[in-house]
Amino acid sequence: MTSRDAALEVLKKLRESGFEAYFAGGCVRDRLIGRVPGDHDVATNAVPDAVQKLFRRTIAVGKQFGVIIVLVKDCEVEVATFRADAKYTDGRHPDSVTFSDMKSDVLRRDFTINGMMEDPLTGTIVDLVGGQPDIKARLIRAIGDPEKRFDEDRLRMLRAVRFAAQIDFEIESATLEAISRRSAEISSVSRERVKEELGKLLAATGAGRGLRLLRSSGLLAACVPALKALPEDRWAAAVATVEQLPRRDFGPALAALVLDTDTDPAKAARIADATARDLKCSNDERERAVWLVAHHRDPERASAMKASEWKPLLAHPGAADLLDLFRAVRLARGLPLDEYSLMAKRVQQGDLDPPRLFTGDDLLAMGAPRGPRIGEVLTAVRAAQLDGEVTTKEAAAAMARKMLGL
């Protein structure tokens, strides 16, 4: 069952029970601009208790705000009651809501392109805020006074830029000016939500455009302070690198943004670590970004590397991301791809992480004393194995004995 089919089933049941019900928000916008909606939300005058009584499987995810999730087979449909919002004391959520009518519900939403509703049974668009003209003009415009919209929910500033990156629309001048005036206030939004919006922006087709808007509007300095002082040439290179990435998972994309924050990869890696922690990234995202920044220049030495250097590098779980990042850096700066091609060819050869010929237990068995020397010997023997200088266990043992004086 598709998202649309599930939402249509919910909508029909609400109407059969005497309630108003419409598709609302993003799914309407996406259909009108020719995008396939990721999900379909339903807006209704049925209050949450009525929705829960009408449907057997529900989740009261935001009942206090009028939001109930209805489960239809393997789909989740968000059903929201028409509402008017009270004050937003925390700059993110209304202190309370009053269930009301469609007009009140539409007027408290963020942007005109997200403020339309649709009757999917007839295809009729209900547009009380001028969303259709703005779609034709390719504009992202706040509903009503942009200052008020951003005062209510400061995350909307970042969402405007993210939408611009995703759907290639311009931000209407008054809306953009309000964002620029209030950009520092995004720092009051939880870092988890900021990171979520940044992730969507970075994954968007227009990620470069979105990043440039972030910087010009002032949002970048508050969202990613480490990039605030990045000189214009380095910033342009970072944006171009992001644009060249074939995949923009958060870890690699963050690495592309911060790798030029310092000419020393080790120092830049520490900045990547601090930034990832600040944005509440997962451990995997943080560790991947840090490793990529620390090693992003290693492939520059591809032709001079011994097998004992490039094999462990290419056997690392982040190797595919590293090569993608290295290629993106070279393309963004107009540099040749010879070293990238060599490393990519080596990946195809396989046999990057062959079983070890010799272990610590083997060393202890031959009488080696415990201590740091064991690690040094094992590292040397492994390097010799990868370089093809040692090919049997017997030869590995002989090398170890010689190093240990046994």
Q: Please list the strands of the largest sheet in the order they lie side by side.
A: 3-4-5-2-1-8-9
- Just name the CATH architecture of the largest domain: 2-Layer Sandwich
The major β-sheet equals:
7 strands, mixed
Q: What is the domain tally?
A: 4
Low-confidence region ranges? none
* CATH H level, superfamily name of the largest domain: Beta Polymerase, domain 2
CA distance, first residue to last residue = 70 Å
Q: What would you report as the Rg, rounded to the nearest angstrom?
A: 28 Å
In words, what does this structure look like?
The chain has helices at residues 3-16, 26-33, 48-54, 102-107, 131-137, 146-152, 155-167, 173-182, 191-203, 207-217, 219-223, 232-244, 250-258, 265-278, 283-295, 307-315, 319-332, 338-349, 360-365, 372-386, 393-404, and strands at 21-24, 41-44, 58-62, 67-72, 75-81, 83-85, 97-99, 117-119, 124-126, 139-140, 170-171. The protein is α+β, with helices and mostly antiparallel strands and 406 residues long. The chain folds into 4 domains: 1-130, Beta Polymerase, domain 2; 138-223, Hydrophobic Seed Protein; 253-352, no CATH class; 360-404, no CATH class. The protein has a 7-stranded mixed beta sheet with strand order 3-4-5-2-1-8-9. The chain is elongated, with a radius of gyration of 28 Å.
